[in-house]
């Protein structure tokens, strides 16, 4: 029995070490949210039978710090909400990493080319769509793009004209803990999270935006290093139980 319990313990601590290592590796990843392995006690007929790994809980409610962006277009969310992005298949992804640039076709995109979703100028209701910046206006050509702290996308033209061409949308969820993480500091909605509810910054439950800024990883490196040492001790303790069990079985077989 103790051998099986220790094996479960090793499996659980191995998963915990993987989660902690991933947190440490992403301590400098913009928009990253740390995870924590959750455990519960396992019983059979009222007797302790080890530990049950209940998976990783994401710290989506904990904000990272607002830091200077790599571009004046970058955006950081302070409070609740996610940027909504459209991938190449038309599917929606969600992120807290607010890298912003304009691609060759005039779309507002992130650093991997996913298109920001938002509203046309003058409205903040209805369906969201990709934000595109007209290359010309009344004979003038596009000379610059600016985003304000409301997420308004303002285009400047060579003829001196400026125009607001759209507004970046933010998404919220009934149960964001059920969002599934994906590569590239992205999440996707699930049945458990509920469908995305769209709006703009500082409305409803949605937080505020900081232009020219990014949200840093929310990893507390000191806490993670302490957790790492604790997990290593737990791993060694479970290994010791297995070693002791093995020695006892060997002694028993030799005595027979």
UniProtKB/TrEMBL annotation:
Signal peptide: none
Flagellar hook protein FlgE/F/G-like D1 domain mapped to chain residues: 76-155
Taxonomic superkingdom: Bacteria
Residues covered by the Flagellar basal body rod protein N-terminal domain: 3-33
GO cellular component, one term: bacterial-type flagellum basal body
A Pfam family the protein falls into: Flg_bb_rod
Main location as per UniProt: other
Keywords from the named record: Bacterial flagellum, Cell projection, Cilium, Flagellum
GO biological process, one term: bacterial-type flagellum-dependent swarming motility
Flagellar basal-body/hook protein C-terminal domain location: 211-252
UniProt-annotated location(s): Bacterial flagellum basal body
Family: Belongs to the flagella basal body rod proteins family.
Role description: A flexible structure which links the flagellar filament to the drive apparatus in the basal body.
UniProt cross-references to NCBIfam families, sorted A to Z: FlgEFG_subfam
Protein name per UniProt: Flagellar hook protein FlgE
Organism of origin: Rosenbergiella nectarea
Organism lineage string: Bacteria, Pseudomonadati, Pseudomonadota, Gammaproteobacteria, Enterobacterales
């Amino acid at each position: 029995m103790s051998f099986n319990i220790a094996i479960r313990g090793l499996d659980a601590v191995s998963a915990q070490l993987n989660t902690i290592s991933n947190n440490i590796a992403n301590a400098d990843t913009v928009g990253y949210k740390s995870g924590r392995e959750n455990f519960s006690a396992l019983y059979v007929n009222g007797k302790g039978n080890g530990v049950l790994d209940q998976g990783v809980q994401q710290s989506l409610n904990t904000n990272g710090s607002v830091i200077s962006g790599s571009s004046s277009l970058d955006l950081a969310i302070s409070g609740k909400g996610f940027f909504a992005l459209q991938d190449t298949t038309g599917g929606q992804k969600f992120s807290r990493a607010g890298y912003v640039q304009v691609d060759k076709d005039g779309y507002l995109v992130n650093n991997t080319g996913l298109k920001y979703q938002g509203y046309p100028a003058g409205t903040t209701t209805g369906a969201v769509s990709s934000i595109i910046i007209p290359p010309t206006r009344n004979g003038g050509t596009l000379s610059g793009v600016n985003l304000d702290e409301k997420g308004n996308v303002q285009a400047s033209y060579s003829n001196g004209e400026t125009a607001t061409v759209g507004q970046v949308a933010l998404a919220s969820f009934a149960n964001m803990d059920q969002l599934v993480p994906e590569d590239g500091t992205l999440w996707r909605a699930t049945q458990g999270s509920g469908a995305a509810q769209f709006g703009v910054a500082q409305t409803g439950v949605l937080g505020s935006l900081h232009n020219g800024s990014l949200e840093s990883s929310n990893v507390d490196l000191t806490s993670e290093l302490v957790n790492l040492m604790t997990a290593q001790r737990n791993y060694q303790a479970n290994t010791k139980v297995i070693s002791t069990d093995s020695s006892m079985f060997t002694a028993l077989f030799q005595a027979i």
